[in-house]
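task queued by scheduler; priority normal; single chain, no ligands, no partner chains; default sampling; output format set to structure tokens
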Amino acid sequence: QVQLVESGGGLVQAGGSLRLSCAASGLTFSTYDMGWYRQAPGKEREFVALISSWSGGTPYYAASVKGRFTISRDSANHTVYLQMNSLKPDDTAIYLCYARRGSVWWGQGTQVTVSS
């Protein structure tokens, strides 16, 4: 059974930083693409970042976060990270980790709130 557990969310002022973690279990971690979506109140779920399982882990970013967020993966600890810098109030959302290999599995999410 695939389980994804996020952590690292919280309240931060605009311009600050947070690092989210997603610990994965029940899967062959190296064979899964891993990534993050976010969902703000009243809005649709939005892609944030993905790191592939191939080519040494190629990262992909939404235009809204490119240059501010960095995704990485630690195969030894089965964990994917999202380093978020220069946070803006528009980044406020629940951040959800996902694992994809054909099917997609989701974590429960972690709340990120950025105050102005």
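post-processing summary
- The two ends are 40 Å apart (CA to CA).
- The mean pLDDT is 96.
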